[in-house]
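thread from #wetlab-drylab

HS: before we spend reagent money on co-crystallization trials with LLP, can we at least see a predicted complex? here's what I'd submit
DV: go for it
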Amino acid sequence: MSAFAYRGGELFAEDVAVASLADRFGTPLYVYSRAAIESAFRAFDASFAGMPHLVCYALKANSNLAVLDVLARQGAGFDIVSGGELARVLAAGGDPSRVVFSGVGKRVDEMEAALAAGILCFNVESPAELTRLAEVAARAGRRAPVSLRVNPHVDARTHPYIATGLATSKFGIAHDEAIDLYRHAATLPSIAVTGIDCHIGSQITDLAALVEAATRVFDLADRVEAAGIPLAHVDLGGGIGVRYRDEVPIAPADYAAAVRRAVGKRRHTLLFEPGRALVANAGILVTRVEYLKRGGERRFAIVDAAMNDLMRPALYDAWHDVRPVHPRDGATETWEIVGPVCESADFLAHERALALADGDLLAIATAGAYAMSMSSNYNSRPRAAEVLVEGSRALEVRARERVDDLFASESRLPRVT
Ligand code: LLP
């Protein structure tokens, strides 16, 4: 059941009327449901019951401290891609020994911070990164736990900007170069080889692609172990898709059953890095219609949210459902839902049939993932506030940015005396 449903002709977030949140906190406003996050996590986690595993939430999807706190309390680990994300996990009370560090461009200071925090594993993506990590760890007098991210060369059949497992991708180590790099890593005194890792892309709805990648990674794990290098864990990455429109997402139970078959009799701890699947449908973006503009070839509903708040439509031509907070009776018209930013790519939705009036509130659905976390201040627009609903309670978990926050760290030229 969705956490966002109509009751008595208006949209609710759990037990709170969305309109009351807009009145109290203003718009544009991100609203998250704690119950939806928890139930998505539990569904994923429980489907692997009986297998040693750790679900490391990929916080690039939504890194609000309250969201991380909710997941940490459920026992989640975290997949980070920067020192900033590590700091967020620590600030939210996350356990560093459950953190894996992904990403192709880890800086020295980020490696140092992660080593000092005592993370579970670095997912190393190139020979050069391995060399650097070995040096940083040696200097710090530590052994860095490492898993190599291998590129299984599997087509995730998703949007090209979010496919990462192809031979042409910048991510990971080519499948056929991995064994040699494992052999080398095993000789480095400041490196402890602990696992193997892959991630082939995002918003994947094709179970066969995930199974193919997992099978290739397990085969490689066997070869690494046959070379005398034991592995404690196999990290199968994230990428499970969700329904934005009419996609048929992979059910956690089906994914888990397929993984179980691919694992066979192996006894590794399994790691997963889901982001979107845990939070996308736990959030909406609430926006108010500022102007209706008719005339010309199209009708525009100009709303107070824009591409700086939600850039997925502009960047990937992504489709998000648009739901009126108070649906109106009467004839619908076809609207372009656009923001105030000075770019033609500033649209949230094309050609939606809605009955609209000035001042109406709209909810942009499936906005819990890659939405606020990808927002910017373009056009000097302060970022939206974020609210977490739990039952009938609403907590402001990020205050709306103020205009003077935007340039507080800038300065004018020195005065000429
Ligand atoms: N692990 C790694 C190494 C990743 O690069 C990603 C996502 C994940 C896990 C989590 O993937 P998920 O389970 O969320 O699919 N901004 C895009 C999505 C970019 C995904 C980047 N990597 C979007 O809005 O669709």
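DV: The chain has a mean pLDDT of 96.
HS: ok that's useful, forwarding to the group
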